[in-house]
Amino acid sequence: MPSNYKTIIKDGLWDNNGVFSMLLGMCPTMAMTTSATNGFGMGLATAAVMAASSFLVAVFRKRITQEVRIPVYILIVAAMVTLVDLAMNAWMHELYKVLGLFIPLIVSNCLPLARLEAFAARSEALPSLADGLFMGLGFTIALTVIGGVREIIGSGTLFADASLLLGPAFRSMELRFLPADMGVLMMVLPPGGFFVTGYLVVAKRLLDLKAGKEIQMTGAHSVG
Amino acid sequence: MKETALMMIGAALVNNVILARFLGLCSFMGVTTRIDTAAGMGMATTFVITVSAMADWAVQHYVLDAYGLGFLRTVTFILVIASAVQFTEMIIRKVSPTLFQMLGIYLPLITTNCAVLGVALLLVEGNMSLIGATLFAFASAAGYSLVMVIFAGLRERLVLAQVPRLFAGPPIAFIVAGLLAMAFMGFSGISTV
Lengths: 224, 193
Known about the structure:
The complex is a heterodimer of chains A (224) and B (193). With 224 residues, chain A is mainly α. Helix content of chain A is 63%, strand content 2%. Chain A has a two-stranded antiparallel ribbon with strand order 1-2. In chain A, helix 4 packs across helix 6. Chain A is globular and about 60 Å long. Chain B has one domain (2-187). Chain B has helices at residues 2-14, 25-30, 35-64, 73-95, 97-103, 114-125, 130-158, 170-184. In chain B, helix 3 (35-64) runs parallel beside helix 6. Classes of the chains: A mainly alpha (224), B mainly alpha (193). Chains A and B meet through helix 2, helix 4 and helix 9 of A and helix 2, helix 4, helix 6 and helix 8 of B.
């Protein structure tokens, strides 16, 4: 089903982007986007959890009864988060220290749970794996973009400390646009997260409108 | 005494759960279309946060620390929170059927409100005593409810405002929330906890 996978990829990365279209997973989106590097790391951790838990739920979907499915989903996600938490603590310790609280909080991120309920609970294992992975990558892109915008305006750099957090190979990504102390501090502080996310949602609507698509007026209808 | 009061003010206003720590944003955007629902949600969440903070504190000290099971923290905490939510649901159904009807599907979803898990993790990492932890959780939750009600009030006005079509809905809500976060930054400096 090549066309099917194509829709999954397109949905995850752009059409149904977890952040800009569905407005899910807002907590790490705001909290961990003070720089592009942090957003990128947070996004990848979430993508790993989403791919693994979507796959597991799809494999066991026939055995999970309707009444207890939500607790079972949460436990599966929690187990995956624990694995990612331990792995990052061991191999990416610098990034782990920066993300801190928000790694265990992937459990209560509504995006993984929403995809389990909407996709993995009624699909085969491999499409579910693809859906989790590409929804997660769409989330990563959104967080990196928000982080990038906030970082460029707020501190005048892009991907600062990437070599420290992700590994020496990423040194060439570190850029500086403004001289030090020229940034607008507000963008790195909490209000900047709200402003940038708001304007980027508008930007996505504008691009969709230019492409002749119907713009999505809904969103933020779920709690979690 | 003075330190406790400062700690509580810090948890409620300076490091506000929603506007400074960015926890519980989904409910902040999702159930703040009317003041009464936001207030009901705030009360229910306050109860869950306080109860599950006490339970999580006990679990951390008497089970996880005692048997060296620290790595199971995320899994156990989410289970404790799910039970606390179930317990709250039973109480609300008994005490106030109207509120139960009003909150409807939002009640079970408190389990995945990251403010609950976030506060529990914060107080475990802060090495607090049981009383300190309970007060910290209650103050954080009170700050959460306060911001929920304020934001719901703003959004009730926003419905009447003429907003450009592209900004309608979530984007304008984000920008209003940003302004609210700026206002709350005025509290920084009151306490340093």
